[in-house]
Amino acid sequence: MDRIEAMSIFITAVDEGSLAAAARRLKRSPAAVSRAIAFLEARVGAQLLHRTTRSMACSEAGERYAIACRRMLAELEEAEALAGGEQAAPRGILSISAPPISGEDVLRPILDDFLDAHPMVSARLLLLDLPVNLIEEGMDVAMRIADLPDSSLIATRVGTDVRRVVVGSPAYLSRYPAITKPADLAAHEIIAFTNFGIDSWSFAAAGSRIPRVVHFCPRLTVNTVRAALASAIRGRGLTRLYSYHIAEAVRSGQLQIVLPNAEHPPVPVHLLTPTGRSSVPKVRAFIDFAAPRLRSVFSRLAKEARTLS
Description:
Helices cover 42% and strands 22% of the residues. The protein has helices at residues 3-16, 19-26, 30-44, 60-84, 100-117, 170-175, 225-234, 243-251, 281-306; strands at residues 49-51, 56-58, 92-98, 121-127, 141-145, 154-162, 164-168, 190-193, 200-203, 212-215, 220-222, 238-242, 256-258, 267-273.
């Protein structure tokens, strides 16, 4: 069996979570997928996947091997794209990661339109609250809402004005002391969203570049935006989210923003690609297609956010 083909089958099995799902994705028989995995395991001399009748998971060796396979397959695709030149048509599987809410509500409709426009491209959209290592996870593109550290990734800015805001329901705020400064949070119940701090929040300090940090013991800790939002609307406490997360609830009167004068400066939104991937036709085509549409959406969201109070 061709080793590159077997590696591709192995990565598909890892991504799909089962040999049967990989077989369906690749339009092959489960036996053919199983043979490819067995071929690789025989070559490397180690078990790559732990398989039962109900589940499948990478072994420790399999996890390391998957990282190497993703890198090799990506480099091979880049080499083919360079050899094919500018005339190569977008094709293959486009792998994208994004935060769940913006990925579902903003990026996914754009991706749907892109797939309509490019019938030889299929996509894998991974929605995670935490950033992934694009190279290790075999990602072509990632959407990030954050100030970016220096890195070798190629960044395309698609938004500039996402605020981080603290909100609570009118019913909750009526039961607790007024909030005029960050220190007042000590007297309040906090719904901590894991990505924004589970025991402290920082705020801009007037006249200083050093942020002011407020520590707390949360009454509730959650790991998704939707859970934090729902509990805040119900009156469980205060939570901190991005402005586009809470915009509808604020406009409808279900939530109110507190401490607007202590917010950090807005953060930008970027599409990131690993060095070299931008030359691959499917990646280049997606960036060219998605960037102007994302700028339009995030510009509208920023204008709406500025009207919130």
